[in-house]
Amino acid sequence: MKTITVFRGDGIGPEITDAVIEILNHAKADLDYEIFDVGEAVFNKCQEYIPQQALDSFQKNKVLLKSPITTPIGKGFRSLNVTLRTKYDLWANIRPAKSNPALDTYFKDIDIVTFRENTEDLYVGKEEVIDDNTIIAYKIITKKASSRIIKAAFEYCVKHNRKKLTCVHKANILKKTDGLFLEIFKDIAKEYPQIQSNSLIVDNTCMQLVMNPWQFDVMVMPNLYGDIISDLTSGLIGGLGLLPSCNKGDEYAMYEAVHGSAPDIAGKGIANPSALLLSACMMLDDLGQINVAQNIRNALNEVFLEKKVLTPDLKGHSTTQEFVQEIIKKL
Q: Cα separation of 33 and 61, whole Å?
């Protein structure tokens, strides 16, 4: 049995975490849990957003299932997501956007995987006030970080029989930083002649994604573009509530829902746990519990297909618990 660490987050985090663990238990996932409350409510009690014992648990178990944590905009603490990625060198953010034929979306048959470099670029959060009129933010791109995310994307293509890898950049303007990322991509591409490779400027990529998303297979890019592009790809499949995500390093792995903590609906019992559940399925795949993960996905797909028990964000009228129980019935 594998012991994992669980952060319940805040906002809707505790609700969807409890829902996912209930489903995992009914699916007979071979897991044991060390569960911790984290976020703003915990800070108000003990002056820590993430208690030290929670971090110690992650360091011991190496695997974290994490619910959303609220980050104030424009003030207060730096994103705890960014802090965790940096602290544990979770350098690869992988976000697969795959259409579910049971859901009514404008775009059909989408299957795009975004590889986002996760530790540098503008997300280093280094800013400097020059004077009252000028503030500078530092964009950092290194050979080490660029090489490992690009190499990981190519290796993913090989392992999963993907045919094409697209590098997204802005090297026409940022000739030094994005220019370095693109140069490394072209060099590494020579090692994988069996994988079709190309590059696109980020603004053109956004246009192409909404005009002809089927031309994309796997994409790799620096941190900021990865954050934006993966949100865009989630819109192609029905929204962030359906997009799983994992953050991996050489030693640690964190699986999380991409969407926010949605404090406006917290406590109302209508939150959709699908994104966190699908992230947990990615975790199960990586832990070798592939059959359990597929059983959960099949059950979820059946619920989607019947369209009888869906949360409001999926154009339904059911509660979180009704949705969960319907998934459990299909299991």
A: 10
